Amino acid sequence: MALQTEKQLSIHLLEPLESDLLDIHLVSQLALHWKKSGHRITSGPTNLVDTDVCICHWDRTVVPKDFLPENPDGKICLNFDILDISKRNYSALELKENSNWNGEVIIKSNFNCFGVLEWNMKKKSLLERIRKSLSVKYWKYVRMLPPKTYPVLENIEQVPNWVWSDPDLLVEKFMPEREGEFYCLRSWLFFGNRGYLFRLFSHDKVIKVKNTVHYEFLDSEPPPELVDFRRKHQIDFGKLDYVVIDGKAIVVDLNKTPTMGSDPNKPRVIGLSQGLYDFI
Question: Using CA atoms, how far apart are residues 144 and 168, in angstroms rounded to an integer?
Answer without folding.
Answer: 11
